[in-house]
Write a structure and sequence with these properties.
The structure holds two protein chains of two kinds. Chain A is an alpha+beta fold. Chain A is built from three helices and six strands; from the N terminus they run H-H-E-E-H-E-E-E-E. Chain A has a single domain, classed as Nuclear Transport Factor 2, Chain: A (Roll). Helix content of chain A is 20%, strand content 45%. In chain B, 46% of the residues are buried. Chain B folds into two domains: 109 residues, 3-layer Sandwich (Rieske Iron-sulfur Protein); 264 residues, Naphthalene 1,2-dioxygenase Alpha Subunit, Chain A, domain 1 (Alpha-Beta Complex), CATH 3.90.380.10. Chain B contains 15 helices and 21 strands. Chain B is α+β, with helices and mostly antiparallel strands. The radius of gyration of chain B is 23 Å and the shape is globular. Classes of the chains: A alpha+beta, B alpha+beta. Chains A and B meet through strand 2 and helix 3 of A and strand 12, helix 8, strand 18, helix 13 and helix 14 of B. Chain B: It comes from Parahaliea mediterranea. Chain B: This is Rieske 2Fe-2S domain-containing protein. Chain B: One of its GO terms (molecular function) is 2 iron, 2 sulfur cluster binding. Chain B: It holds the Pfam family Ring_hydroxyl_A.
Chain lengths: 159, 440
């Protein structure tokens, strides 16, 4: 893995986070491969998104529906705007996935502003990245909350 | 705190077609509801499949003031006990689920209890000699709830010794629990795939009122239905349009006529369901391998009968709502006048292919998750109602739809699917429970 430029990986993750900070879902989605998925498990060390419940598990089709819903004028839970501040650290290269994608793990702290209130989310990310001609694309992003089993409040945006 | 609200005052808050806003905003009313509704009704605790082995326990709350434990003993019997040490009152278990090998052991002074709650041992017991303390007095055991009951694995408990037996209390609404279980080729279901817990910053009654309020889906869920529809329409003709997600999301945009046709059925003690002959779940694809297993188990005719009883939401007032055709349930746990938690549990149909459980979990995730595109819009309108009701503009909310048109049958009341029969049913029960004489 000596040929991987970790600074370039960090930069990619920071750019992704900046898009979610806005949030700019249109541009954010474009970071994913066509078969890309986003997963927020509902249990610690969950191994499977299909045979166990998750908070979110979206492929590109569901991302597309979510993006359209997010800006729909009749989605009342989205009337209150949402802004985020993502802080990512402890970025580490964690080898290759079975498919040969680059596995990158990191820690995140996200503060969300929603309904005149600030909410804190924390946990770890696992990104599976695919090299493209001019950079990287996300094949899979896993969001491990530190409290996935706890009662959750409404979350209207990807973390 | 002992609240003093007279029977006359309570009675005046629920009119045939109007409710006073205090039902949603007054902390004293909330405390009385916990005592008289949640403290008397059969409350859903959990499913026996959550405690499969000896010593397995599942801890929950009947009310914010009644932590309980469902536990399986050495003989395989399931008990519901108060989660309280008889000595100083400490909660015996803290985790939501787990296994106690030999005995419950209090973390404070080490009193230990058998799985059925019997006190076994007090450390340094000699100090009690000659004090009048009797270790064999049942008051020193973990206390059982007043009554517990189980129907097809669904465990309920009541804090009232006067409540009728569980089956009587369930009444005609029991058909839906039967239908849920009968959808398994083996006639049995089990909890599978974990739980979602969703915190609601509003009064617990809003979700019960919303279940069979069929005037809301096409308004509240318009955005997600349209987002899904527009996207599918934008796909090239060659693209595959058949997605389970679409099958689940699109019916939330069903017309008023469709919902009217599905009907609402009400029962004593506040239970009700919408649907029956049809519902928004009626057009789900029947998976061939599942159908095959069902026909093998029940024969073609009985299988069709089971499918054809298609309900949307069934409420067992006040704590449990089930989706027979989806095989998931939601459990309501009140915390304060403006706060409760909803738990979504999914069920495996024993003997059915795993794809059935996967669809159930897909539904739970899409519709009931706090990060979904359906549940959050429901909660948004509850929350706005909670805030709006603080307004001094009016003290009342109304529910007149199809008033005077309900048809009383032997054990049930039936009416149109877009009427307020569900409201009339649950608030009749509310009044009865709050009078304190519901089981008199």
């Amino acid at each position: 893995m000596s040929d991987i430029d970790i600074r370039a990986i960090e930069d990619f993750l920071y750019r992704e986070a900046a898009l979610l900070d806005r949030p700019d879902l249109d541009s954010w989605m474009q970071l994913f491969t066509e078969d890309g998925t986003y997963w927020m498990p509902a249990a610690e060390d969950q191994t499977d998104p299909l045979n166990h419940i998750s908070h979110m598990y979206d492929d590109r089709v569901m991302m597309e529906i979510r993006r359209r819903n997010f800006v729909h004028p009749r989605a009342s839970s989205k009337d209150s705007g949402v802004r985020a501040s993502h802080l990512i650290g402890n970025i580490r290269l964690a080898g290759k996935t079975d498919r040969g994608d680059l596995k990158v793990t990191s820690n995140f702290h996200v503060v969300l502003w929603y309904r005149d209130e600030q909410r804190v989310y924390a946990g770890t990310y696992e990104h599976h990245l695919v090299a493209t001609g001019d950079g990287w694309a996300i094949r899979h992003k896993r969001v491990n909350l530190i409290n996935p089993e706890a009662p959750q409040r409404t979350l209207i945006i990807y973390l | 705190m002992r609240t003093t609200i007279s029977h006359e005052e309570l009675d005046s808050l629920v009119e045939p077609t109007r409710l006073h806003k205090r039902l949603y905003t007054d902390p004293d009313i909330f405390e009385l509801e916990m005592e008289r509704i949640w403290g008397q009704a059969w409350i859903f605790i959990g499913h026996e499949s959550q405690v499969p082995k000896v010593g397995d326990y599942f801890a929950t709350n009947i009310t914010h003031k009644a932590p309980v434990i469902m536990v399986r003993d050495k003989e395989g019997k399931v008990h519901v006990l108060h989660n309280r040490c008889a000595h100083k009152g400490a909660k015996l278990v803290e985790n939501r689920q787990g296994n106690v090998r030999g005995a419950f052991r209090c973390p404070y002074h080490g009193w230990s209890y058998k799985h059925d709650g019997t006190l076994i041992k007090i450390p340094n017991e000699a100090g009690y000699e000659g004090t009048g303390f009797d270790i064999n007095d049942t008051c020193n055991n973990m206390q059982p709830v007043a009554q517990m009951g189980s129907y097809r694995g669904f465990v309920f408990a009541t804090l009232s010794a006067d409540a009728p037996d569980l089956k009587t209390w369930l009444g005609g609404a029991i058909d839906c629990l039967d239908n849920l279980c009968d959808r398994s080729p083996e006639g049995e279901v089990e909890v599978a795939g974990g739980v979602l817990r969703y915190e609601h910053e509003c009064n617990w009654k809003f979700i019960l009122e919303n279940l069979n309020d069929t005037m809301h889906p096409m308004v509240v869920h318009q955005s997600v239905v349209q987002a899904a529809k527009d996207y599918i329409d934008s796909l090239p003709a060659s693209a595959t349009r058949e997605r389970s997600e679409a099958e689940i999301i699109l019916p939330f945009g069903s017309s008023y006529e469709n919902f009217e046709e599905s009907g609402i059925t009400g029962f004593p003690y506040g239970h009700h369901y919408d649907g029956g002959k049809t519902s928004i779940h009626a057009k789900y694809t029947v998976m061939p391998a599942y159908h095959e297993a069902m026909v093998k188990a029940y024969g073609e005719e009985r299988t069709r009968d089971i499918y054809s009883f298609n309900t949307h939401n069934t409420l067992y007032y006040p704590s449990l709502t089930i989706k027979t055709a989806v095989q998931n349930i939601r459990v309501v746990r009140p915390i304060a006048v403006d706060r409760f938690v909803v738990e979504t549990w999914s069920f495996r149909l024993k003997g059915a292919p795993e794809e059935m459980l996967q669809r159930t979990l897909l539904y739970s995730r899409l519709i009931n998750s706090s990060a979904g595109m359906v549940g959050p819009d429901d909660l948004e309108v509850y929350r706005r109602t909670q805030e709006g009701l603080e307004s001094t503009a009016s003290d009342w909310v109304e529910f007149h739809r199809q008033y005077g048109k309900d048809e009383q049958q032997a054990d049930r009341v039936v009416g149109g699917g877009t009427g307020d029969l569900d409201m009339r049913t649950q608030y009749k029960a509310w009044k009865a429970y709050m009078s304190g004489e519901v089981f008199a």
